[in-house]
Amino acid sequence: MLLLLPPSEGKTPAPDDAAPADLSTLSGADALTGLRQAVLTALASVSARSDACAVLGVGPSLAAEVARNTRLEVEPAAPAARVYTGVLYAAAGLGDLVSGGGFDGLDHREGAEQRVTDCVRIFSGLWGAVSPADRIPAYRLSMSVDLPGVGKLAAAWRGPLGAALDARAAGDVVVDCRSAPYVAAWKPRPDDADWVTVRVVREVRGTRAVVSHNAKHTRGVLAGHLLRRAANPPSSSSGLLDAAGELVGTVVGTEVGTGLSYTLLDAALTPARTRTAPATLELLIS
């Protein structure tokens, strides 16, 4: 299994006394270090400009985070699973997984971190793709940005990410929880990998409709389950469906404010419509 996640919008800075990132130690360093360094340099230059927020597509309230972009090479770094925060990451509990806790049948830190490092890639406009254990600083840069000095990031990352991930995806199931800008940066080769996107739906008057509310949380619950279960990670779309089916009938979330819980009612797999499109794992929630 290769599990693809989007970055979180919010990011938690590392402790002040933590060491900065070392690009040579990040996942895919052979294929990605050159562009990572180029994006870092271009981002620092843009973030020092008076129009930085406009170029990066963020509001003025995020000016302090944009200013941090000018010093990322010396900023403290932490495992990506702790820098990326938000609904999906909280539901998956990736920070606990990197520290070695929360596994059924994997009792020691080395085994826990090995599974997460092997199976998960978090996509990023700055880093391309990193594992949850890779140490990075907090930053502000979306994959949808047209970065002066580099160009449109999704297009710029496409070749390097292919070099880093094509071989890893071959013969395996790719479980894709990314949003569209990150999908545009890399897609599995259609003849090599079993590519499956994850869609969360509710049934309204007899018709299943995609939901945005609770979707990130539900994807996070699925991600955490796939990584924690004692069985080996799935290696095919049918195996993924079986693993997701283990959650059917369980409460997968509780809404903040109302306290109402929602349950996974069904998991179904829809085949790809074309040779180059993904199949879809549809998760029906109450």
Written overview of the protein:
- By secondary structure, this protein is of the alpha/beta class.
- The protein has one domain (2-285).
- 35% of the residues lie in helices and 21% in strands.
- The strands form three sheets. Strands 1, 3, 4, 8, 9, 10, 11, 12 and 13 form a nine-stranded mixed beta sheet that branches.
- The protein is globular.
- The two termini are 28 Å apart.
Structure summarized in a few sentences:
The chain has 286 residues and is of the alpha/beta class.
Count of separate DSSP helical elements: 11
Helicity range of the residues? 25-40%
Per the principal axes of the C-alpha atoms, what is the gross shape?
A: globular
> What is the mean pLDDT?
93
> How many separate domains?
1
| CA(first)-CA(last) distance | 28 Å
Radius of gyration: 19 Å
Catalogue the unreliable spans.
none
Q: Helix and strand string, N-terminal first?
A: EHHHEHHHHEEEEEHEHEEHHEEE
Structural class: alpha/beta
Proportion in β-strands: 15-25%
Major pleated sheet: 9 strands, mixed
Strand element count:
13
What tags apply to this protein structure?
286 residues, 35% helix, 21% strand
List the helices and strands and how they pair.
Elements: E1 2-5, H1 29-47, H2 52-56, H3 63-68, E2 78-79, H4 80-83, H5 87-92, H6 94-98, H7 109-119, E3 120-124, E4 128-130, E5 135-136, E6 146-147, E7 151-152, H8 153-169, E8 173-176, H9 180-183, E9 194-204, E10 207-210, H10 215-228, H11 237-245, E11 251-254, E12 261-270, E13 279-285
Parallel strand pairs: 1-3, 1-8, 8-9, 9-13
Antiparallel strand pairs: 2-5, 3-4, 6-7, 9-10, 11-12, 12-13
Helix pairs in contact: 1-8
